[in-house]
Fold this sequence. Notes:
By secondary structure, the protein is of the alpha+beta class. It has four helices and three strands; from the N terminus they run ααααβββ. It has helices at about 5-10, 15-30, 40-55, 65-75; strands at about 80, 85-90, 95-100. A hairpin with a 3-residue loop joins strand 2 (about 85-90) and strand 3 (about 95-100).
Amino acid sequence: MSTESLLQEARILSVAERMQLVEELWDSIGEQPADLPLTAEQRDELDRRLADCEADPNAGSPWSEVRDRLERRNERRITFAFPSSRNAATYDSPGRYNIIQLLARPFG
């Protein structure tokens, strides 16, 4: 089956089903890491990060702290929806705006 015919079939699915399909496809890519060769720059960056971790194993933050920081940051996020379009914007307290095209049907 060609990529185009797979895409046509996927478009028939609901948004939730397509999101599930994307997640499963993404997970399947990780099952074959040898098929994703690294560039020299990527390998150098990974080597540098590994050396940093080995030089100072206590430099990072535990997952529980990272998760808490992310949750606190998301609590400060405000989302604005634009009923006349399929767009929304988020504003988070550091002052960044992000325009989001909604995947769901238009408002109203």
